[in-house]
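Dear colleague,

Thank you for sharing your sequence with our group. We've completed the structure prediction you requested, and as agreed, I am returning the results in plain text so they can be pasted directly into your records. Please verify that the sequence below matches your submission; if there's any discrepancy, let me know and we will rerun it promptly.
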Amino acid sequence: MDVRLTSEQRQLRDAAAKLADDLGPGSVLDLDDDSRVARLEKAVDTTGWRALRSDGASGVEVAIVAEEFGRGLVDVPFLGPVLADDLRRHLGDDQSPWAVGVGGEAVDARGLDHAVVLQDRKIRAAPVGSGIAAADLTRRFAELGEPGEPLGELSAEDADRWYALALVATTADLLGTSRGVHDLAVEYAKMREQYGHTIGSYQAVANMLAESRALIEGSISVLRHAAWAVDELDTAAAIQAGKVAKIYCARAALAICETSIQVHGGIGNTWECLAHVYLRRALASIELFPVSLKEIDLGVS
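Please find the predicted structure tokens below.
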């Protein structure tokens, strides 16, 4: 495989990064800014990125957008609709954004009325109900109504490729979360002074941040392979690559979030610090399509 991004993929990454930087929440207070959220919703809707798979995009390209949106804490639906789109493209119906149903809940369902559920390779629609309290402050989880009659049925291969994509998309969100919370810590270490020097100049802090950077580089490596594998390898290999990436990036994200909180010191444990918002998002992404070490060791699907 060639891990280098094409010029079009780099442009997609830059566009997603700019959107996240311009309209994503820059503080905890921004999470309650309805006008910002409305502008962000309009911008994401205009891009058409929620229907990437219907437009022929690869797993790599879905991962690119998911990563940048995780980094920028984008708090309008993307992950749910892009996974729902990958299911609904097999039906040939309209591609208005839907949430995706996972474990009896509608995931990433802010402002959405319908969710799509995959049960035993059958695609079903279900209504989105009332919101559910969740750790993640950037994505809405909701009750899921009873799924209706099947809208269609996937082949075993298509169902497995969707699962591989789901692993990759949630892993990409974790990598983006890791990058965002690490950047937060680095910027704080550059300006916070103790004993007449910025804390980033002290070896103990610098080493902690360097270790986080090393975990990010490892996460990039395993994710890029898994994202490429979604469309290029047989389904068993693609799923296994996704599982390896998910568990590596999940553990890395927790370590990086905890390091960022520690670098921030006392303020890192306050509501006003964005570090806990990143941690909350990471916890939610870890529990979406979770993977255990036992599955990796045994190759269990």
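Summary note from our side: The mean pLDDT is 95.

Kind regards,
the structure core
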